[in-house]
Specification:
alpha+beta, two-stranded antiparallel ribbon, 1 helix, four-stranded mixed beta sheet, 8 strands
Length: 156
């Protein structure tokens, strides 16, 4: 994805849709900052070129090779932060595993069969129970409102 020399002052919001990009060039743009969440989901990104004034997203630890060449900084070989020897600042809760979510970013995915907040619930979501209670409550309230409000309806 070549976005070089596009007069970008910030990362375009539509960039979030290009998470499958492998190579991205942002050089020769007057970028002020690269917000940390700009590359959320870019797990396939292997080569990123940014203006020399900008740091590689996630820092130099998130990349295998960072080189400065003229007016650009080349970040190559995105590292998996889950495989690093450095202790994670935000470890994943019990019953979950770490998964990369972009340069220097992680996400915690629940192990099967766990789900929910902090992966504390085991089994599957009770769809029938939830749907049954919701449906029953909806029908009951509809009948109640119909019975109490029908006398207020004007007849033609």
């Amino acid at each position: 994805l070549d976005l070089s020399n596009c007069s970008l002052h910030s990362v375009p919001p539509g960039l979030a849709e290009a998470t499958t990009a492998i190579v991205l060039d942002l050089t020769e743009n007057p970028l002020t900052t690269l917000p940390s969440g700009s590359f959320l989901g870019f797990i396939h990104l292997q080569s990123l070129a940014v203006p020399v004034a900008q740091e590689c997203p996630g820092g130099s630890d998130a990349w295998q090779d960072v080189t400065v060449d003229g007016s650009s900084r080349l970040c190559q070989g995105q590292r998996n932060p889950c495989n690093s020897s450095v202790e994670l600042a935000w470890p994943c809760p019990e019953n979950s595993v770490c998964a990369p979510d972009g340069p220097g970013l992680i996400q915690c995915l629940c192990d099967s069969p766990f789900h929910g907040y902090k992966c504390l619930r085991e089994g599957t979501f009770p769809v029938l129970l939830f749907g049954g209670i919701l449906g029953t409550a909806t029908v009951f309230l509809s009948l109640l409102l119909w019975a109490t409000q029908r006398r207020k309806a004007k007849t033609p």
